[in-house]
Model the fold of this input.
Amino acid sequence: MKLYSEKAERFSAAGKDAAVFFATKETVLGCSEPSILSAHKQLVECGAFDCKENNLYSFRMGLAGQEKLTLVVLIGAGEEPQSPQPRKVRDAMGKTAKLLEKEKAASAAVLFPESFGKKEVAKGGEGLLLGSYSFDDYRSEKKEKICKEITLYSNSGAALDTANVLAAAICQTRDLVNLTTWDLHPADLAKKAKKAGEKYGFEVEVFKPEEIEELGMAAFMAVGQGSANTPRLIVMRYRGNPESEEVLGFIGKGLCYDSGGYSMKPSTGMETMKSDMAGAAAVIGAMGAIAQKKLKVNVTAVAAACENMVSGNSYRPGDVISSMSGKTIEVDNTDAEGRLTLADAITYTIRKEKATKLVDIATLTGAAVVALGGEITAAVCDNDELWNKAEAAAAKGCEKIWRMPCDMDLNKNLDSKIADMKNTGERGGGCITAGLFLKRFTEGLPWLHLDIAGPSYTKNGNDVCAFGGTGCGVATLYYLAKAFEAER
Ligand code: BES
Ligand code: MN
Ligand code: ZN
Done:
């Protein structure tokens, strides 16, 4: 789908299959076409359309000078005037994209109300692109998209560059999550990262098992050693500000499959575990967007990719393993594997990549989903300045996030009788305890932990996303990197 941006005064639906407007009960905002205005009036009067925010109503009608019927889409604008929220606009446009596809409209003109500024229009564009995403790699018949071009008319005539870049990055991340493990073993994920690096302009280095062992990443290796598909350490480097020593470290959990290992998951709950690499997918997507937009910032992203499987060679509950940091860990539960891989990835990012700030993103705990549900990212952060930037970045990216307390009293949960620590604590506070486990490896650097176990995957779909991977985290990471940009 291609998007175009135009000034509102040039609005015309001539030659387009569809015309899209926002409407209050009083009027169709910005519309001067008498036939549409009178249709709207009658629809409201007979109660067919309530104009409630983000409700859609569509019908076909003949417009003056048009050969074919035009699909008219009215989007409820609620009570105007009010300040429109970017997220609402994005969601409305996501719904619109799905409707246009269903109604087989190849082209459309969208008229945004006067009150919509650049932000709203850009988010609207992003919503159209995200809403039109579908994943049909595993269908025998591939459907070609019908809706090909949409023109966005607005007062601001906003640029859609960032919308295009972000939507592409988010969709790339969704693709990675939606691929089954069969098509995305650790080595395949590494190849995908390399491809992204070549396409968007960042460096990618991949470490094989012998090299990972050489680095001393014993905790990471322990998790991956039960699978026939061996681990890969994927390192992505982007230097947009070479004069600076500051390096943002993004660390993504890359479990290409998580069976739980010997602490095996029940069968319900295992079937979506190909998505346990959503954190790695998010950092790959974000790196692409950051490099494409040439942000003046240095970022190194690291993904420790492996599979948590059961075999004669798997690690076991009760094992004591070492780690790159030198700290020893008692494996209380092999299903708490993500933190083991992340611990080593964090140490690597600090000691070998010289990162100065750390952000990890991981489908880490079911506890985060219990606490906040399926749409909100749970954050743990030990630095208020970093958190403030992260909260603002999530808002810009229209992603929901909530900070959990970084309460050190929960730390005692991780005490082990035989090793430096164990990898699980009590059930209560599980999301925070997982964060505190990671904090033990951050060597005092400012650190932000994003648990995306809930929002990285949707079983039911939503306005801007189909079934499956959502691309959660990409926008937040992108805007966070942007917040650390050097003055231009
Ligand atoms: N990958 C899971 C977490 C998860 C759960 C992601 C649901 C997405 C949806 C993680 O590796 C895991 O198994 N965590 C355990 C930790 C526990 C053993 C302390 C959990 O949350 O049950
Ligand atoms: Mn697990
Ligand atoms: Zn996992």
Remarks:
- The longest helix spans residues 161-178.
- The chain has a mean pLDDT of 97.
- Residues 258, 260, 335, 337 surround manganese (II) ion (ligand 2) (CB under 6 Å).
- The chain is about 30% helix and 20% strand.
